[in-house]
Amino acid sequence: MKISKFTSFSFFFPMLFIYLLLPQNSKVVEACSAATDCGTGYYCGHCPGLGRKTRSVCTRGQATLVTSIVNGLPFNKYSWIMTHNSFSIMDAPSLNGVQRLTFYNQEDTVTNQLRNGVRGLMLDMYDFQNDIWLCHSFQGQCYNFTAFQPAINTLKEVEAFLTENPMEIVTIVIEDYVRTPKALINLFINAGLDKYLFPVSDMPKNGEDWPTITQMAQANRRLLVFTSDASKEAEEGIAYQWKYMIENESGDPGVQRGSCPHRKESKPLNSKTASLFLQNYFPTTPVEAESCKENSAPLTDMVNTCYKTAGNVLPNFIAVNFYMRSDGGGVFDIVDRINGHALCGCSTVTACQEGAPFGSCKNISVPSTSPMTNTAGSYNGYVQFSVRSASPVHSPNSLLFLLFYFQLTAVMLQFR
Q: How many whole angstroms separate alpha carbon 9 and alpha carbon 1?
């Protein structure tokens, strides 16, 4: 289904977007004591970053399946949730027999992230133990106390998801430290993902529209992979990220209110020669207890800031830590609002109407006593927080930073 009069959107959208995405109490959530108090796609959660250490509210943990509402438009017209360091999962077991001392950015498996509607994964890949591992590092080096698991394990999760969901499209962005020739493309082949790869030769090179999501699904070109290593495009057929994508600065520079600088490797955000826009929004040091605040009004503010900096261009991906943490709606509500404005001219994508003129919206009232239940698609919403991260005030990363620093200092001194 394609919303008619799409092109008319460009004339009045710049005025509407800034107003409609301002932080507002548009969703009233209800206090809860258990997940059964909340609707489908919600869990009962805290937000200690906002001073709510004991008060729980129904908190959204599931994305709207946007393609079930607005289908048939170019891939680059949509916005998707991306997880930063998708592999860096709290309580993930050590697979190399060494106690891990590093940062954590997510709380559930990649499979669970995909089930909850995440469609973008950030993966850091390294040569390690005669294989390719997912790992944190220092100066491009993976250590046994910062390693998570062989990358093929996570890629097999992606393969299983794409096989089980034949209309879904997943994007992987690789921070690439793999130096072994042909190892990266062979990794995707060995994971069974080569049959889904969108070929570099057919990717838009000068800011043109991508194929429609319907065309991509019908052709089974449902996996987009980008690497930070420019040489991999010619040598292995894996797209160099910054030829096709603009990106704002990550870490602390990317969360400074009122500022949205572009990453040094990226073209300026207002460049028209790249079709995809990745917006980062996560601090350099991830703190679980603070993420619910970060993923709420401050993220909405930054979407507005980056939208203006990019010349009134919406992000196609929003990358966050602890993606299910918020004060109620979080990145899920933000992406719904972006897709609503972009795809049909409505305040949220759930107000879009099939076959209706652009700007014709369903009357969706704001719930006064309970959160809106997401009925789009087949996802039920599944919370898979680790036992350790279930505490509303648990925040191990500050301590881990010190431990990591001292451990790393000891390692580096050995090479002096």
A: 17
φ, ψ at 199 (rounded to 5°)? -70, 140
- Domain-wise residue ranges, the chain: 6-11+63-413
Measured at the CA of 48, the angle between CA 42 and CA 50, to 5 degrees, comes to 95
Question: How far, CA to CA in Å, does 260 sit from each of 112, 153, 302?
Answer: 30, 35, 8
d(CA 329, CA 79): 16
Question: CB neighbours of 51 closer than 8 A, spacing ≥ 6?
Answer: none
Answer yes or no: are the C-beta atoms of 173 and 241 closer than 8 Å.
yes
Beta bridge partners of 31: 57
The CA-to-CA distance between both ends of the chain, in Å, stands at 62
Please classify residue 50 by burial: count the beta carbons closer than 10 Å to its beta carbon, then call 0-12 exposed, 13-18 middle and 19+ buried.
middle
Q: 62-81: per-residue pLDDT in tens? A: 999 999 999 999 999 999 99
Q: Are 87 and 146 in contact (CB under 8 A)?
A: no
Residue for token pair 């998801």: 161
- Report residues of the chain scoring pLDDT below 70: 1-29, 53, 365-382, 386-416
Mind giving me the DSSP string for 339-404?
A: HHHHHTSSSSGGGB-TTPBTT-B---PPPSSSPPP--SSS--------TGGGSTT--THHHHHHHH
Q: Which two tokens stand for residue 230?
A: 């420019």
CB 182 within 8 A of CB 191: no
Euclidean distance between CA atoms 29 and 276, whole angstroms: 33
Task: Answer whether 142's CB lies under 8 Å from 135's CB.
Answer: yes
Residue 320 is predicted with a pLDDT of 98
| 373 closest CA partner among 332, 342, 338, 344 | 332
Check if the beta carbon of residue 257 is closer than 8 Å to that of residue 249. Answer: no
For the full predicted model, state whether its pTM sits above 0.70: yes
Structure tokens at 359: 């700007």
What CATH architecture does domain 6-11+63-413 belong to?
Answer: Alpha-Beta Barrel (3.20)
Task: Give the tens place of pLDDT for each residue, 315-352.
Answer: 999 999 999 999 999 999 999 999 999 999 999 999 99
**Beta pairing, strands 131-138 & 141-150:** antiparallel
The span from the CA of 347 to the CA of 333, in Å, is 10
